[in-house]
């Protein structure tokens, strides 16, 4: 879609312009301005180069969210200062998540010390109304406002979905920033509803959207708070703000990447390939690299141990899934000879379910292999092990859990309306 033609200006805000795309009626182009503002626009300065930094920051953050499976409006970058997104009717609410108490929270809650930790993160919502300084709104106020956007009404169900999604976005970015030892203190996002009536994380996410404290130290803050705190704005301290934003944009290259971890699916017989392919399909969807091998612990013991040595020696983080029916020797033999995690996933046939499962469960003492029968479950178990050291896999698992939550909610709404 390099052929897009800029259409008319839909809206110009404080920091960006939104254009229609003449040949893509459901999309729009968001162009950043070289301007920094705070206090609902009361403080505002030109800052050359800010648009490019902000756009690149936004592209990297939304790239990470899209890759994890979060539903967002972001489509793709369009030059250094713009990106293409799904055109939305915007929900006029700022959705805030806080891990630690600071800033306006402290003023509204005297007595709570700065740094008070919220587990789970605290969620707050503010109605977007610059003239009245974005008043805080409850869920009930949002529901009672009865917003109708792109053919859908914002009811309790939609509010629940947006709150869960807000939490997911925060947690994904918090885990990602932890890779660079940076604490995500709080952040805000916005939602829009696209032409299909789908609720999407929209607007932009950049250094204006969060508080980010390297090493968890407020004095090292790298976000827009530095600008908000300036009593006397000089060219020199504007440059400091810009350098901080640039630093964040560069760090995001590390934050948005991680090696693709492996799951090796070993089958005792090629007749079990279909079961293994099913595990591989789910593992790949969760961001794992899946490899299939054939080896029998009973009939090819030496080969089995040699294959194991290959993965032991690879230096990679590998989870092994052993697929063997009847008497499962494969999983226990692997497990007794490695510290890599081993998951048994015996392919079950109706004539031998009890015996097949039993040989995977009742293993000799000294072995720590686990058993997960269903192929999707085995892939999920492998991904959960990898998620402990890989934030991208963690993000996909979390996004999948949200999508399960949304599907159940939608099904409930459908039946409720019958
Ligand atoms: N995908 C989208 N489709 C349509 N409009 C969008 C989209 N993403 C963001 N917008 C809107 O673009 C407008 C301009 O953005 P900008 O952030 O500059 O506005 P602003 O002056 O900060 O006002 P606001 O307080 O509403 O954010 C905002 O009203 C925002 O809601
Ligand atoms: Mg805005």
From TrEMBL:
TM spans (from-to): none
PurE domain ranges (all copies): 261-408
GO biological process: 'de novo' IMP biosynthetic process
Gene Ontology cellular component annotations, sorted alphabetically: cytosol
Name of the molecule in the record: Multifunctional protein ADE2
Keyword Ligase in annotation: yes
Source organism of this protein record: Ooceraea biroi (Clonal raider ant)
Family the entry assigns: In the N-terminal section; belongs to the SAICAR synthetase family.
